[in-house]
Amino acid sequence: MDINLLKELQQARAEKRQVVLATNLKSGHSTILHPFEESELSDLKIDAQSALSRDKPSEIETKDGPVFLNIFNPPLRLFIIGAVHIAQKLAPMATAAGYDVTVIDPRRSFGSDFRFPDVKLDDRWPDEALKDLAPDRRSAVVTLTHDAKLDDPALEATLRSDVFYIGALGSNRTNGKRRERLTQAGFTEQEISRIHGPIGLDIGAQSPAEIAISIMAQLTASLRGKE
């Protein structure tokens, strides 16, 4: 591989950018595409977007011959707001599914290494932590505390971001009150509608583990465009 292409790929990885290495299998010529960072998209870049979204490299036919699209996606990240019982079940499930998981909770008695072994813990307030952690298109955020003082700042910090999934625990009544607060905070109906609330697929989940399964199922469907 050309050394300049390799350096560009390394830089993209360090910056957590989604890129595709497109190689013409007839000529051997390679180029790096940034399909999610451009407003005008060619057919090739649309195919590159699709490959990145599916997390699968692909081979396509073009007028210049077959082109192999090798994807370079940053790691998937999941930010869990609230070190609660559901989070204890959700964190290892998400890790097993390939997510880099961070549990955010300023209540240190909740967010302890004893309760969350081998999980990244952040004891800052959610809005402060998320501003620093910078969730992106490969990130998901779930709020699980039932406490507006913790959940709302996290939602306000992510509703206008590129995260692919936002979920909030709570009943329909709780979700309705949340929508009212966010509306008063200046968010539009379209922005608020990004929230999956009540969170998770409706599978009749009752225990923390079952609720975590329903969340992971809905999160996966959102990631793969199957909602």
Structural account:
- The relative contact order is 0.11.
- The longest helix has 16 residues, at 208-223.
- The protein has helices spanning 3-14, 43-54, 85-96, 126-133, 148-158, 172-184, 189-192, 208-223, and strands spanning 19-24, 30-33, 58-62, 65-72, 76-81, 99-104, 120-122, 139-143, 165-168, 195-196.
- It has 227 residues and is of the alpha/beta class.
- It folds into two domains: 3-72, no CATH class; 76-223, NAD(P)-binding Rossmann-like Domain (Rossmann fold, 3-Layer(aba) Sandwich).
- It is built from eight helices and ten strands.
- A six-stranded parallel sheet has the order 7-6-5-8-9-10, sandwiched between helices. Strands 2-1-4-3 form a four-stranded antiparallel sheet, sandwiched between helices.
